[in-house]
Design goal:
globular, Single alpha-helices involved in coiled-coils or other helix-helix interfaces, binds zinc ion, 100 residues, three-stranded antiparallel β-sheet
Length: 100
């Protein structure tokens, strides 16, 4: 395949990923299982095309159980200079360093 075509394909895949994650955000309070399915599809596309999901979108769901973070399903704590996010579905913990 031509390089240009591959670039185009990756571009379309990225748009699809963002669309799916935004859709998951819209549905998470209506149908949590469906929302998770959207995240799963987005992740499958990202793995197939080896595209990194932008950080902004990656912070919207748990990377272990793939459920989108919902106000009643996750906890955020700030400890020293890091943010600790705990998923209440699978108890997965993520840490992010705060800068400055
Ligand atoms: Zn989880």
């Amino acid at each position: 395949m031509l390089k240009r075509e591959r670039e185009k394909e990756r571009q379309i895949a990225m748009e699809r990923i963002i669309y799916l994650i935004e859709r998951a955000q819209k549905f998470k309070n209506i149908d949590y299982e469906l929302a998770r399915r959207y995240i799963e599809l987005a992740r499958n596309i990202s793995m197939k095309y080896r595209i990194r999901i932008p950080k902004k979108y990656k912070l919207l769901f748990c990377k272990k159980c793939l459920y989108p973070y919902r106000s009643d399903r996750f906890r955020v704590r700030i400890h020293k200079s890091s943010v600790i996010i705990t998923c209440l579905n699978c108890s997965n913990v993520r840490r992010f360093q705060l800068r400055g």
